Write a sequence for this structure.
């Protein structure tokens, strides 16, 4: 038998999952900044763009899931 979650419980779980996306995107962008400094700019820039894409996906999921009005 499956248990149903309340809206508050669902929100707390979603918040924890989306927080991981935020840290992942920030970590990838920080790594890209390091690669830009240590190795070469185009390679680091591609890592920075990958991190930005993850953060944009994070924002899209929040807006789609919770109907945030801009």
């Amino acid at each position: 038998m499956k248990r149903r979650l309340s809206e508050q419980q669902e929100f707390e779980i979603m918040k924890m999952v989306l927080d991981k996306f935020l840290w992942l995107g920030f970590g990838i962008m920080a790594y890209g900044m390091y690669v830009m400094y240590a190795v070469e700019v185009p390679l680091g820039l591609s890592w920075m763009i990958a991190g930005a894409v993850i953060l944009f996906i994070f924002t899209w999921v929040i807006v789609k899931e919770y109907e945030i009005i801009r």
About this structure: The chain has one domain: 16-65. The two ends are 39 Å apart (CA to CA).
